[in-house]
C-alpha cells in the first residue's frame, strides 16, 4: 500500500470514556474487579438475613464500586478532558509508508513507524501507543470505510509483535 491514509478526528467524551473503561478493566485489574463485585453480590444474597444494616450497606457499596461508581467517575473525568483545548481541537493523522504525521492547529509532528511502541486494535477503536503513557485514540467511527486500509497499512509498516488485534 503506497497511498497515504488521512484521518481527521475529534475525540468525544464517550471515546475517552471507552478507552478509560478498557484500561480500568483489562487484564488482572478487570479480573479483580469482577471477582470483587461477584463476591460482594454473592455475600449479599447468601447472607442477607444474618447481616446487620452496616454490613449490608458495606456490601452494597462494594458491589456498586466497580459496576456503577467507577464507570460514572470515569465518564465525568472524560467529559472534563474532552473540553480541554488539546483534545477538543481537530487532530489530523496522515499515515504514510515511511512516517506518520500528526497535525493539530498550527503544530505538526512527524515520526517514523519504529517510534510507535504498540498499536492495539480494539473493538471500537485503535490505540496507537507512543510509550507507556502517551497514546493516540482512533475511534472506529472515524476510520469508517478506511478501517481495512488502515489495518493493512499497520500490518505492513509496524512489526507484528507491536500490533495487537483484540477479538472483543
Descriptive report:
- The chain is an alpha+beta fold and 168 residues long.
- Helix content is 49%, strand content 23%.
- Strands 1-2-3-4 form a four-stranded antiparallel beta sheet, covered by helices on one side. A four-stranded mixed beta sheet has the order 7-6-5-8.
- A hairpin with a 5-residue loop joins strand 6 (125-129) and strand 7 (135-139).
Summarize the structure.
The protein is α+β, with helices and mostly antiparallel strands and 168 residues long.
Number of helices: 6
Mean pLDDT: 92
The SS-based structural class is alpha+beta
**Main beta sheet: strand number and arrangement?**
4 strands, antiparallel
Q: Count the strands?
A: 8
Proportion in helices:
40-55%
Bulk shape: elongated
Neighbour order of strands in the largest sheet: 1-2-3-4
Percent of residues in β-strands: 15-25%
N-to-C SSE series?
EHHHHEEEEEEHHE
Q: Alpha-carbon distance between the termini?
A: 27 Å
Radius of gyration, in angstroms, nearest whole number: 20 Å
Low-confidence stretches are none
Amino acid at each position: 500500500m503506497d497511498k497515504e491514509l488521512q484521518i481527521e478526528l475529534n475525540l468525544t467524551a464517550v471515546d475517552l470514556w471507552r478507552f478509560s473503561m478498557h484500561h480500568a478493566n483489562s487484564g488482572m485489574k478487570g479480573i479483580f474487579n469482577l471477582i470483587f463485585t461477584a463476591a460482594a453480590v454473592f455475600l449479599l444474597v447468601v447472607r442477607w438475613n444474618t447481616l446487620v444494616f452496616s454490613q449490608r450497606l458495606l456490601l452494597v457499596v462494594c458491589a456498586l464500586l466497580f459496576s456503577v461508581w467507577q464507570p460514572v467517575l470515569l465518564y465525568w473525568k472524560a467529559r472534563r478532558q474532552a473540553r480541554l483545548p488539546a483534545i477538543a481541537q481537530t487532530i489530523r493523522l496522515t499515515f504514510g509508508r515511511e512516517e506518520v504525521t500528526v497535525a493539530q492547529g498550527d503544530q505538526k509532528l512527524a515520526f517514523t513507524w519504529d517510534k510507535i511502541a504498540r498499536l492495539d486494535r480494539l473493538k471500537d477503536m485503535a490505540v496507537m501507543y507512543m510509550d507507556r503513557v502517551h497514546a493516540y485514540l482512533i475511534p472506529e467511527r472515524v476510520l469508517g470505510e478506511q478501517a481495512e486500509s488502515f489495518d493493512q497499512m499497520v500490518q505492513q509498516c509496524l512489526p507484528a509483535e507491536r500490533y495487537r488485534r483484540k477479538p472483543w
